[in-house]
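Entry for the shared binder. Reason: the reviewer on the internal report wants the predicted structure included alongside the sequence.
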Amino acid sequence: MTNPPAPFRLTYATMFDPPADLHQRFEVSLARAHRRRGAELPMSVGGQDRGAEQWAQQRSPIQRDWLLGRFPLGTAADAAAAVAAAAQAGPGWAATPYGERCRLLRRAASLIDEQVFELAAALALEVGKNRMEALGEAQETADLIRWYCDQMDEHAGFDRVLPNDPLTSHVSRNRTRLKPYGVWAVVAPFNFPQALAGGPIAAALVAGNTVVFKVASDTA
């Protein structure tokens, strides 16, 4: 369920004196998060759901009898399939102009804005953060995505002509250009599972790479 963006700026710095609306919206989202507990959530490889032979139960550190969900235990074959899917998508994404990549990533950031209370509620249940820390991290995820896009725009895709070599016998031109490398792996830590996923993923994607993302086992 999407929500209108918060009428106030969510950051770690504004968490000390929040309006009452923040608490009300968080409580509503927290109730919805509780109703979603216990679901079976597959991996996603190449845009398709993917299960596994073995599944792990994830429980909340707040209350151990709260079953958050069941998650597949990926294998080397699953990882290889994910890398292959990312490699297949790579040439098309690399050929996409950086301005279009930024547009799509900023759209992703806007979707996070719309879901920030839902994401924070899930984060609180799974990591045990208080609501202020959870909201700050969820919002930071969107902010990091936008920051990498802003850097790309500010530096015109990091494509620059450099001074020529000072040679008298011939002309030697120099240029620096940011080019995609290929498939990147991003593994998020358990303590910042959203912000330290969204930030590195955005950095790789905005530069034209594709990404295989693995969650931390404790924050599946």
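Summary line for the report: The chain has one domain: 20-159+178-219.
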